[in-house]
Recover the amino acids of this structure.
């Protein structure tokens, strides 16, 4: 008998009528012959209300008490949903996180799941009951109530689907699926039929609010197909699965992260260990650092730029103060009127020119790009906040995201392909029953025989990046990593990119022509560099990965030239000589997490 997990978000259980509607959906599934587990969030905005209440009682509430308080929201809904099911003539039992055996670590307000015991749920299902489980909560070793972080009910649902080996995991919400970008920001956004785990992981961590990003980590690790659909209609929504919708479209989604801040540390001595000191001081304060760009300046000094959430800016500057004192930098600048625009697409790696298309779209809308980072399936650009909406629209239009790609596949076509034996890449990770949410790495690799080209003194105005990468593309040069960051000197920026070593001469020629036509300060080429990559799942939410990478390289006296991070990869560009040492060092450090 098939098992289905149905998750209902806060808006789907916001009032009595909606609770009844959710109950009816579960009963219908049961009458169709499924075993049904429901996962329910707190009603409407109840979690927000509880948070406000706590603030009224006093500042800085203890984290443990906060979780005790917030978990009550879900407890109210599960009881009411179970009552509604019983009133409609079926049998249901509500269970708290503790009662479903959801064991977590003790990091209150952002606990990670260790294990789930399924016996009780299975026994109740065998008795013909619908199980109504509280989302978002668990218990630690000492039976303290913990919560998984805002939006965590999604993660409860997917985790339950994984351990119960459910046939389907349906996420009922107030939107009817996943869109190419947030439809509240851009009404022309298109609902997609299918999106891959990798794409959804990136989009969720960029702030696409449909799904909690840790739930996608789970889904990918355990191969759980997720169906995101509306709780107010019966239309099919979006399937989140291994496969992607199109085999050719370079971009599947765009996202805007509105409230970012840029920090630049100027004149950092360009010797190993400096970035480590900077970033570990920030990491210690549990502040997530996002776009990281290191500019190799003239004269042995580097400028290190990165972004943090705007709310974290003050804390970041405070954390930096002692470090910049200690290492003797030239200064720190910041800008908290910036937003990040990103495009994500699983076909990107074999699509030259995606970056230049994005930059052209931004240039066409008169948007100035302040920073750029690229990684395997994502390109991000930092832009002025007052241009962020224009920028998002321009990029969405530029990639024609409102149109369905010609080769788009539906979920039923993908299922047919699977049945016909079309291979899908499945993750071979070592899944430990006692550490369900532990870091999972899939590999550590080195791409050697690369070269770096840096353009210095790139004028800070719209259209330059577009022109650069169009000309490089036109010369048939394939570019891997691109970073652009603040240069400090005159408000200009510098842009670095990597190319295969044998394309260095040709790249330098093009770069010199570009530099001459835009009056740039100069061009630098470095042969013999390598890119080391740590790949895995949820690397940005497991923030220590980047820190460990820096630590490992610094302790081996290896200087980092360029950095990029995503949910799937952390990349560092270093000198070729150091590649073997770096790889061995990283393999040792991450031995316990390699699948
Ligand atoms: N009630 C929690 C929140 O509002 C968990 C959830 O809804 O997923 O964040
Ligand atoms: Mg939610």
């Amino acid at each position: 008998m098939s098992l289905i997990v149905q998750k209902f978000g806060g808006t789907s259980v916001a009032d009595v009528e909606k609770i009844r509607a959710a109950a009816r959906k579960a009963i219908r599934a049961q009458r169709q012959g499924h075993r049904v587990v429901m996962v329910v969030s707190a009603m409407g905005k109840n979690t927000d209300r509880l948070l406000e209440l706590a603030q009224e009682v006093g500042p800085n509430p203890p984290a443990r008490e906060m979780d005790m308080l917030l978990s009550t929201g879900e407890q109210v809904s599960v009881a009411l949903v179970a009552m509604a099911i019983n009133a409609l003539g079926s049998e249901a039992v509500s269970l708290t996180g503790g009662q479903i055996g959801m064991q977590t670590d003790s990091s209150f307000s952002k606990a990670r799941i260790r294990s789930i015991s399924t016996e009780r749920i299975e026994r109740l299902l065998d008795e013909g009951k619908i199980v109504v489980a509280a989302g978002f909560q668990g218990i630690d070793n000492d039976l303290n109530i913990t919560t998984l972080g805002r939006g965590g009910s999604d993660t409860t649902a997917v985790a339950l689907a994984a351990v119960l080996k459910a046939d389907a995991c349906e996420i009922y919400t107030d939107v009817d699926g996943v869109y190419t970008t947030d439809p509240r920001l851009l009404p022309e956004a298109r609902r997609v039929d299918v999106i891959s785990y990798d794409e959804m992981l990136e989009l969720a961590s960029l702030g696409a609010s449909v799904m909690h990003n840790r739930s996608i980590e789970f889904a990918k690790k355990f191969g759980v197909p997720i169906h995101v659909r509306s709780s107010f209609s019966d239309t099919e929504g979006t399937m989140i699965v291994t496969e992607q919708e199109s085999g050719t479209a370079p971009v599947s989604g765009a996202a805007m992260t509105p409230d970012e801040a840029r920090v630049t540390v100027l004149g950092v001595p360009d010797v190993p260990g400096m970035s480590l000191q900077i970033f570990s001081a920030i990491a210690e304060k549990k502040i997530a650092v996002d776009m990281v760009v290191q500019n190799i300046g003239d004269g042995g000094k580097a400028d290190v730029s990165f972004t943090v959430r705007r709310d974290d800016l003050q804390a970041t500057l405070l954390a930096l103060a002692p470090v910049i004192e200690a290492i003797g930098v030239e200064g720190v600048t910041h800008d908290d009127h910036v937003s990040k625009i990103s495009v994500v697409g699983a076909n990107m790696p074999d699509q030259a020119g995606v970056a230049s298309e994005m930059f052209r779209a931004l240039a066409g809308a008169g948007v100035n790009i302040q920073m750029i980072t690229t990684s395997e399936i994502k390109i991000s650009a930092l832009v002025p906040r007052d241009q962020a909406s224009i920028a998002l629209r321009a990029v969405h239009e530029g990639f024609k995201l409102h149109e369905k790609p010609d080769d788009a596949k539906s979920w039923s076509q993908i299922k047919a392909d699977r049945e016909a034996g079309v291979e899908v890449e499945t993750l071979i990770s070592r899944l430990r029953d006692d550490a369900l949410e532990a870091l999972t790495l899939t590999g550590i690799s080195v791409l050697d025989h690369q070269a770096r080209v840096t353009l210095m003194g790139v004028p800070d105005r719209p259209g330059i990046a577009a022109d650069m990468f169009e000309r490089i593309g036109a010369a048939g040069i394939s570019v891997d990593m691109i970073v652009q960051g603040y240069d400090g000197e005159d408000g200009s920026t510098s842009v670095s990119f990597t190319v295969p070593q044998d394309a260095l001469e040709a790249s330098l020629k093009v770069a010199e022509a570009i530099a001459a036509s835009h009056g740039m300060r100069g061009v630098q080429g470095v042969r013999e560099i390598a890119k080391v990559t740590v790949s895995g799942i949820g690397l940005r939410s497991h923030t220590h990965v980047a820190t460990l990478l820096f630590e490992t390289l610094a302790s081996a006296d290896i200087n980092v030239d360029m950095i990029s991070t995503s949910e799937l990869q952390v990349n560092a560009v270093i000198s070729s000589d150091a590649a073997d040492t770096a790889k061995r060092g990283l393999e040792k450090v991450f031995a316990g997490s390699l699948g």
